[in-house]
Amino acid sequence: MTAHYLKISSGKTKNTHKMEESIYNIDKDGFYGDFGGAFIPEMLQPNVDELLESYLRIMDESDFKKELRMLLTDFAGRPSPLYFAPRLSAHYKSKIFLKREDLNHTGSHKINNALGQILLAERLGKKRIIAETGAGQHGVATATVCALKGLECIVYMGATDVERQAPNVARMRMLGAKVVPVTSGNKTLKDATNEAIRDWISNPADTHYIIGSVVGPHPYPDLVARFQSIISEEMLEQLTEKIGRPYPDAIIACVGGGSNAAGAFYHYINNPNVKLFGAEGAGKGADTPETAATMAVGSIGILHGSKILLMQDKYGQITEPYSISAGLDYPGVGPMHSHLHATGRVTYLPITDTEALDAALELTRLEGIIPALESSHALAVLNKIKLTPEMNVVINLSGRGDKDMDTYTSYFGFDNE
Amino acid sequence: MNKIDNLFQTKGNDILSIYFTAGFPNLDDTTAILQQLQDSGADMVEVGIPFSDPMADGVVIQESSHHALQNGMNLDILFEQLEKIKANITMPIILMGYLNPVFKYGMEKFCKRCISAGVSGVIIPDLPIELYIKDYATIFAKSNLFYIPLVTPQTPDQRIEMLGRESKGFVYMVSTASITGSRPNLENSSDYFLRVRKILPDTPLLIGFGIQDASSFNTASKYANGGIIGTAFIKAVKEVSDQVDYKHALCQKADDFIKNIRGN
């Protein structure tokens, strides 16, 4: 099995990148249609240029590919199973498969990107790693790969998230990372990202910023999508084995910034037989102020170095998002998703807190799998789309629910049973 | 002639530019601060457009932006304030802010209103020169509004040369790799200041980030045509927030600040 990006050869300078070979059709400035680019202050220009000039070359080196392959297999436990969920399928009268990213080491798809980027950072000679995190899944993945490589790790996390994802904070600290609670703004993922960017501006030479999603300035969205493309790459083979053809009829994934969806859609984006669905965190409802459903309520703008769909007011101030799920609590979506929404290739659906929570319990009771709150948003889409008995549907189960037990316990009242 | 060009032609050295956040400490302080800065002897001002997510700013400017937004500041109000005081202000005014509020307002409308409000230049840190040239340079040229670029110690020589060539007015030298509000020893950056001067011998240069008093301002004036002070000034005016004779105290504070920097 060979990852898509591993087939791409690249030149040494910006201009000779074979960006046309990226499946998401990025132009030379890093735009997906109207979205993307690198809207960065001059202070970040050298950092981003260094990455831009080297990422494809490094990812194409044989020792890089070999080490990444080894770590994905022996350290992270890939390939992740594609599980046919019989009772869930019977319930929805369709054929439903779960891509079990929840079974990866560290508990989510985030490890795919963290492993790729730590190898990249190592080859760029970086000694210090910074990251932002929302639910803490990316923070844990980054702290894990830093422990693996013996590199200093600083994770920025909104103070609100530090509280609601306490188990992940403890894991990061046990792994040796310094977790910095961020107290600006709404104290969530957006604010953590601002603080990580400020750190990177102040430490341009020795630090690599491991962005956890398909957001940020070009080349990050492309870089992260390529590292996550392993998800759909494995699906090609697993589906062939299970249903006799490499593609399903539909794929469903949740979208905060959009990295697990970018990976799950990657090899199917140009296959018109595959319907693609993204689940957004609607919070209390896309028609209420307490929401993170960017596709439903956002407009075009610039945040964190990229032109994307954004939740903002009439003067371009970013609206504080809300979702019960810390991983979806972000006021924008990555440029590729902004573009896929504009072209209509992917259908994005807002899923409320309650719908996600109910879907989590349903999966747990039908299949014995406790999903992450983020992934539960994808599961809830089953109630929103037309399903038939002939359809093969893949849900990307991006993470496991251990970190959300407090939320589940208080919502379902398990502490009072 | 653009007021910025005029300033550097008539007064080559010791140029003092002050940054402050529009609408801070109070919504209508913008005009009083502008007038006082001019009367006290500042050569130029940078009026900060507050943004919810100022990613290149330290805590002091972050908080001033947050308060300004809570006070209700927005671009429409800022332009109205500037228009009101336009006749009294002879020094160049530069607007400095992040791209999203400007983008959302519409660049064409923004430039038009800048000109009618007497604004001479714009600094948008997260609008790189390549994207400025691609999307906005013609709009700026039409309005005789200057796009002021930043250079940093990490900027390669060739890029410094290009930034100087493609922009107008002056080049903003960020003193060290940092966000605003840091306190570096400027002398440690002397090689970099001299390198930029050598690459851009005829371009006016101002140093910003890390200038907070007379001594650091003098260092900036030694290596460039002058300096830009932001965080230290905002800290000073923040102190007067709850005085009885507020407006008077505010102006007094601004006056003391400038006199202190000028060393008189």
State the main characteristics.
heterodimer, A: 417 residues, alpha/beta, six-stranded mixed sheet, four-stranded parallel sheet, 16 helices, 40% helix, B: 264 residues, six-stranded parallel sheet, three-stranded parallel sheet, 13 helices, 9 strands, 49% helix, globular
Structure commentary:
The complex is a heterodimer of chains A (417) and B (264). Chain A has 417 residues and is of the alpha/beta class. Chain A is 40% helix and 18% strand. In chain A, helix 4 runs parallel beside helix 5 and helix 4 (110-123) crosses helix 9 (220-228). Chain A is globular, with a radius of gyration of 20 Å. In chain B, the strands form two sheets. Chain B has a six-stranded parallel sheet with strand order 5-4-3-2-1-9. In chain B, strands 6-7-8 form a three-stranded parallel sheet. In chain B, helix 10 (190-199) links the parallel strand 7 (171-174) and strand 8 (205-208). The mean pLDDT of chain B is 95. The chains are: A alpha/beta (417), B alpha/beta (264). Chains A and B meet through helix 8 and strand 11 of A and helix 3, helix 5, helix 7 and strand 6 of B.
Mean pLDDT score of chain B, rounded? Answer: 95
Q: Over all CA atoms, what is the radius of gyration of chain B? A: 17 Å
- Which structural class is indicated by helix and strand composition of chain B? alpha/beta
Q: What general form of chain A does the structure show?
A: globular
